[in-house]
Amino acid sequence: MAVAECHALTGVGCMQGDPMDGAVQLDIWMPVAASPGAGALRDHLAAAGIAAEVAEAPAENGWRTALRDFHQPVVAGRVRVRPPWVAAAPGMHDVVIDPGMAFGTGQHPTTRTALELLQRVPVRAPVLDAGCGSGVLSIAARRLGFGPVVAIDFDPAAADATARAARANMVDGIHVERLVIGSDPVPAMPVVLANITLEVLKVLAAALAQHAAPGAVPAAVVGHAVLSGLRVHEVDGAVAAFSPLGLVERERLGEGGWASVRLAG
Fold first, then answer.
1. Could you report the per-residue pLDDT of 145-158, keeping only the tens digit for each?
2. Interval 217-262: pLDDT, tens
3. Do 140 and 236 have their domain in common?
4. How far apart are the first and last CA of the chain?
């Protein structure tokens, strides 16, 4: 569980050592500029119910090898997310993500299950990627024939990471904006992808509902949604939040205590 939590926050390499006296040591490698800091990681783990001692120290050169060993390709259906130093695989939809920025590289269960469910959305239509992070879902959507894509994130560094990843993958049709869900107007698209927390998903659903004109069919605003970033016990809350849009649960996938759900009108 601690490995998943560390990777969820940092998005980069992590090695688990042998347990000693009931405690597990995790080594995380990342550029200094991308580090959330020891305090932020400690608070993140505490919020997940994990008590941990966190310390920062310069790494030996071996961290580069460890980073490469950790970041292996992630396959989700026909999509393959890989770091730049791994060759493409014939016949797969290739998404190349540089793990130097801590916004997700496809390793986390929520990203993998969201990619699986995205491929089961039956229509290829315009997409809103809410909380785009490093752009994995946006780029995968374009590779799969969805589009155009509007990718939004409150973090300017994440928005920049998505824009750079789109250019690196030579993918067009992705418009990136820095928007704060709940404060800024959020565009409504036929397909919504959101790998964010339950609290923000609830705010997103309310923001999308504002697009519905009086007497309009709710599903005319959003026809399909893939929601992720959820603990297994949070899925029902996300489904309930999007039900006023006329969306109902069609399928859910869980892995390692995390879950994603696909909704449709």
1. 999 999 999 999 88
2. 555 689 999 999 999 999 999 999 999 999 999 999 999 999 999 9
3. yes
4. 34
**Residues 125/146, Cβ–Cβ less than 8 Å:** yes
**Cα 44 to Cα 2: distance, rounded to the nearest angstrom:** 10
Encoded tokens for 138: 């946006």
Same domain, 240 and 131: yes
Question: pTM to 2 decimals?
Answer: 0.76
Asked if residue 15 and residue 145 are part of one domain, the reply reads no
Domain tally for the chain?
Answer: 2
> Does 18 lie in the same domain as 144?
no
Write the CA distances from 23 to 2, 20, 43, integer angstroms. Answer: 11, 5, 18
Q: How far is CA 11 from CA 39, 108, 124, 262, in A?
A: 17, 8, 29, 24
With beta carbons less than 8 A apart as the criterion, state whether 229 and 110 touch: yes
In this structure, are residues 257 and 50 in contact, taking their beta carbons and an 8 Å threshold? no
**CATH label of the domain that carries residue 92:** 3.40.50.150
Residues 196 and 150: their CA atoms lie apart, in Å, by 16
In this structure, the answer to whether residues 111 and 59 fall within a common structural domain is no
Radius of gyration of the chain measured on its C-alpha atoms: 18
Domain that holds residue 46: 2-67
